[in-house]
């Protein structure tokens, strides 16, 4: 559990704040190419360092916990279902059971049950795709809004990417506070705590952030245009100060503080130990899918509206309509997640214990796998990878 200490998550975001301010300033005000050179040299030095200490960092997982084994179980079960034209027949309660040795497959009970526990997390992963699309508005839609706003602050032109720091500040403040709150709840006997509350609240904050961005865009257009020099290029931008966009950045920062640690923790703790690494990889895969889905939505909206909802010149288009559309999708996504998380039919699939699952000391009557999304207070919301 020390892998998920909140201090790690806090330090990562503190480092991000420093990077956004320093590198963005160098790239915008000193030299654009130098802004690319610094990260390149940093990554190169990190690779050299890792190579030098690789002997102390190598970890050899068990052979049965490999990703190939997980895909092998799924492939074997699908093949059996296709050949025999049946999914839940033959005395099995789950289609993955066809991969077991006692049902004609070639995988052990533990391997199949581990894969089943991972498959049950897929709804949790799927509902993070649209959420990640909203988070990716910071380097896309929010970036365009900031670039077309007045960055002049007391005679100093702020770097555009420095606005990202506003979304990081809530993380630096909320992470230790939520950790303390969770510790107090854990210390009190009889208290139960559901991580779904954090995730739902975070997704609502993301939807509200995108909605506020739409109203901010309407507000930004009411200001007269002024000339502003960015990277030696003169642009016509709104005279609205860029700090008027701070609320939408803050809300996304709050959303990240609530959602990301909880999802990482659930992905790590709700599967047997042998496939925890694979579970974290799938969460990362679905988060990456959110970036591609976001790009697809932007392209679709741009093409469907003929450049009106996502225009090249923000002052002439209706970018706020895109934000309102995305906020509506995010609200539907949050409602769907809440429904799935508290569905009686859904939670029945997760009752009982899995191979290698250790019994909890706190409230022994409470089963750890009673639900894939509702957990006891032993799961700290601020623990993360």
UniProtKB/TrEMBL annotation:
<keyword id="KW-0571">Peptide transport</keyword>
<keyword id="KW-0769">Symport</keyword>
<feature type="transmembrane region" description="Helical">
    <location>
        <begin position="282"/>
        <end position="302"/>
    </location>
</feature>
<keyword id="KW-0653">Protein transport</keyword>
<keyword id="KW-0813">Transport</keyword>
<feature type="transmembrane region" description="Helical">
    <location>
        <begin position="7"/>
        <end position="28"/>
    </location>
</feature>
<keyword id="KW-0812">Transmembrane</keyword>
<dbReference type="Pfam" id="PF00854">
    <property type="entry name" value="PTR2"/>
</dbReference>
<dbReference type="InterPro" id="IPR000109">
    <property type="entry name" value="POT_fam"/>
</dbReference>
<feature type="transmembrane region" description="Helical">
    <location>
        <begin position="195"/>
        <end position="215"/>
    </location>
</feature>
<dbReference type="InterPro" id="IPR036259">
    <property type="entry name" value="MFS_trans_sf"/>
</dbReference>
<dbReference type="GO" id="GO:0016020">
    <property type="term" value="C:membrane"/>
</dbReference>
<comment type="similarity">
    <text>Belongs to the major facilitator superfamily. Proton-dependent oligopeptide transporter (POT/PTR) (TC 2.A.17) family.</text>
</comment>
<feature type="transmembrane region" description="Helical">
    <location>
        <begin position="156"/>
        <end position="175"/>
    </location>
</feature>
<dbReference type="GO" id="GO:0015293">
    <property type="term" value="F:symporter activity"/>
</dbReference>
<protein>
    <submittedName>
        <fullName>Solute carrier family 15 member 5</fullName>
    </submittedName>
</protein>
<dbReference type="GO" id="GO:0015833">
    <property type="term" value="P:peptide transport"/>
</dbReference>
<feature type="transmembrane region" description="Helical">
    <location>
        <begin position="34"/>
        <end position="53"/>
    </location>
</feature>
<keyword id="KW-1133">Transmembrane helix</keyword>
<feature type="transmembrane region" description="Helical">
    <location>
        <begin position="322"/>
        <end position="341"/>
    </location>
</feature>
<keyword id="KW-0472">Membrane</keyword>
